[in-house]
Design goal:
Immunoglobulin-like, three-stranded mixed beta sheet, binds copper (II) ion, 8 strands, Azurin, disulfide bond
Length: 151
Amino acid sequence: MMKMTTAAAALLTALLAGPTLAATCNVDIEGSDAMQFNKTSIAVPASCKQFTVKLRHAGKLPKAAMGHNWVLSKAADAQAVANDGIAAGLDKSYVKPGDTRVIAHTKIIGGGESDAVSFDVAKLKAGESYAWFCSFPGHSTIMKGTLALAK
Ligand SMILES: [Cu+2]
């Protein structure tokens, strides 16, 4: 019996797909030339130590015209963080330097570029509402989503 039996193959498949599989501690997000993200919500598994967001600009426009970043804060802080980010300017990736309300952020990227950011999941509290957005001027009202700690 050199060939794996069907039953053994099924068991192996069940083991690989079962609850022993580690939680997914990263997410891929795309921004477009149409000023859109391809996601609106993110659930961060509480079992992750770190969570990584990989941002990709799927468009062609340069960052000065249609730049995108990914900025995470408490939902209650998002508007003020976005406003202060605009004042900080493109060379600061539209994030106020040292802004303690910012939990994590990528840099501003243009078409074809990528950036990633990782943060400690311990910074997130269960039951708190978090918001993420692109802080490029004028984008945060459309390019935004929610994030919460999942059980
Ligand atoms: Cu943007």
